[in-house]
Amino acid sequence: xxxxxxxxxxxxxxxxxVRRPRPLRALGNLRFDLDDQRRLSLWYNGPDRSxxxxxxxxxxVWIGDTLATLADLQDVSVGNRRPPxxxxxxxxxxxPPPAPAGTASGSVWIEAEFFAxxxxxxxxxxxxxxxxxxxxxxxxxxxxxxxxxxxxxxxxPLIALVSGYQSWSTCHVTPLPTDATSFGAIGLTRAGHGIxxxxxxxxxxxxxxxxxxDGGLDAVSEWxxxxxxxxxxxxxxxxxxxxxxxxxxxxxxxxxxxxxxVDRERVxxxxxxxxxxxWYELGAGVTEADLLANVEFCAAHFDRRFFRxxxxxxxxxRAAGDWDTNAKFPHGHRWLTDRVHAAGFQAGLWIAPFAVxxxxxxxxANPTWLLKGPPPxxxxxxxxxxMDIREPWGGRIxxxxxxxxxxxxxxxxxxxxxxxxxxxxxxxxxxxxxATGGVTHYGGLTRAEAYRNGLAALxxxxxxxxxxxxxxxxxxxxxxxxxGMRIGDDVDASxxxxxxxxxxxxxxxxxxxxxxxxxxxxLVVRPPLTLxxxxxxxxxVAMSGGMSIFSDxxxxxxxxxxxxxxxxxxxxxxxxxxxxxxxxxxxxxxxxPGISVGNTVVRLRxxxxxRTGDDPRYRVRGYDDETWETIPxxxxxxxxxxxxxxxxxxxxxxFTLPAASNAPDTVHLDLGKVDDVDxxxxxxxxxxGTSGWRTYRRYAVPATELNWGGDNLLAxxxxxxxxxxGLWSFTRDRPASTWIVEGAPHxxxxxxxxxxxxxxxxxQSLSALGVSGARFAAYDVWGERxxxxxxxxxxxxxxxxxxxxxxxxxxxxxxQIVGSTRHIVQGAIDITEEHWDAATRTLHAKSVNLDxxxxxxxxxxxRGMRLRGGARGARGARGAGGAGACKSDVACTVKRLESGHAxxxxxxxxTADLDWSVTFGSAARR
Length: 926
Known about the structure:
This protein is mostly beta strands. 13% of the residues lie in helices and 38% in strands. It has 12 helices and 62 strands. The termini are far apart. The relative contact order is 0.06. Residues 1-27, 870-875 and 877-883 have low confidence and may be disordered.
């Protein structure tokens, strides 16, 4: 393409050519500048001064192995545009011809557009690459490369929220500098300032920010594999938001919010799913009878207005790629969905659409549809890539290439069959990352393009009415195609098993209702979770505002756990403010590996000795390990010289403790994370053992077993059952301990969670949470009782493994509702039309969305007022006489509590909306 054609296609005739780039003018609350070397700086135009956010950043395009930056461009022109809602500045130019001339890389035209909204500190950088005369091969687009000290103002540490590649990948918060890669989005925090960046979907590349231990930050969209630029050009967009008072997570929420009202309304209009899934207790052994038993239970115990889906998960299929039912489901899909629909629910189905068993018909008949492994000599030419071996799925599992037109048609037909022939209303698509495997894709497309093309075929086949949930999915390029997305690791009905998904629910909360509806994973409440632990997970799921899908085998669930589930539905989706975790972007000191004695930490600095195999003598302090190898930790042992090793191995390290006149009361070992199972010994005494590679190990140590003032031995026996093994992480990765949501105007629900094994003392400033007021009426949501009034801070001691969930309303000079037993999130579900009639001293309200459980409302009563008649148990019903303190459509009981609050109660069985009122009089003088 010559320059004249480029100018005509891009509408660049109105752009003023300049011989030298000039600083770009201010744009709304953001300002983009280019210096004489065309390096980018981003500024925030505050009310008093300009604040530097990003300085001296290089932007460019990798053409083959050559990076062409804006400084290299020729025939440069700079101008502006006025898109809706803001203003943009544009720089265009042509990269120099390759040297030597005539090489295949070719030159390209680069257009960089810097857009800022008029009213808020949000903007975007779009880089578009056009061919010049040949179709040059593009490897990556660099949005900026800079160093850590040149990002955000302030003197404190720069904290990064690092997002993993796909649904199950770990998110973590880390101080910089460090070596890490964040995929699709990144949030940065320093000294009360936050900046977030999110890549748009639909481009050829995958957005990453590479963080380096030397302080470097490199934001690029990588094309894997590299491919020639399209004749009509290729582009990539990075959306940016800055908050002068906030953190990186808050800024990510702003950056992820679509600029288009159509895109915002598409997500806002969605109803957040509730229901039941077969996977997390019944697993792959689920049968038709199991499913029907749970349908019957749900019909008997959940209100169909609030409980929507029955989803069949893995275990029904004949094989991967053959999604018809097996012998455990003899009546087939349509018979099953008819039964679900007859019970008043909608039906959901799980599939892994890109997975096909090697012996399946689709794999044998269409070998060109399969992703291929590495080229020779690593594997024979055309060898399919084996993603996994799963006997229940049919053995060796291969993956389909979503770039292939035949695969796209097959996926379209499969999704269409799911909804039209089989009758499902909801489709969960799993193991989507497998679509990005392989070395090449059909037509030379990148793996991002192949993945998105396959998803688009599924979406089109499914239609717009059915709900589509992604799982095991690369996140960036699923946006706009799925309705919901799993955003964390698999849950498990154990204390350790709820922590990873709980952490993801907080750190990926910025996606919710901006890009899709978040699925924090299923709500499980059965033992071995204690009742308090189950309440913690129920609190996180409810406070997050995400999907609430139950997954215990409900007919066998202890009866006392059922109200926990009922208290989370419907999802509190229409709240005054979005739910948010608090304090997730602060630097948490890491202790592991270390011994904690009160507030003192003794670091275990090694060296660490290592030997494969097992011998009980290895736990003893006197055993001689001088001939053992020294191994680096934290690191999987495969990366430390033991590739493909599975089985037993031992780690040993010696440490010295200070002398102590008296043995301390509490001593703990923070070990870190072990893959898969550990038995941990100190001085030959077992102090703990845990199964689970993602679980952080923290063990109590008997102080009497320690050698105070002398040598001690830590010995860890590790058993790896497959895949990576060993002592691989020292990071705690604690989930968010605080959530806040404003369910109705000036009616907040605050969740304080204790993830530790010791009591947690909390002094929480309410103004720091955005809770405005001088004094507040308070209500214990799980305790279903009023609390003492709270002033500008909440002081509490929270027991280990428990949640304190508190409703808060500014104190008033009249009676007002402070809490109810209906839902965890107060003010959002059941109370409407609350008003005070001063003339009659009557509080009127309407309660809606009741689910048949006994129902109670607690009213804060100011000093100087009492229930009319002073009765402790007055009953009343509308039309039944006017003497009672309580009037209602259904008979109610009202009584005065010792705290002075009024408690209004209705019996079980009430599902209709209730108009009710309570009348008060003056308190008797004493």
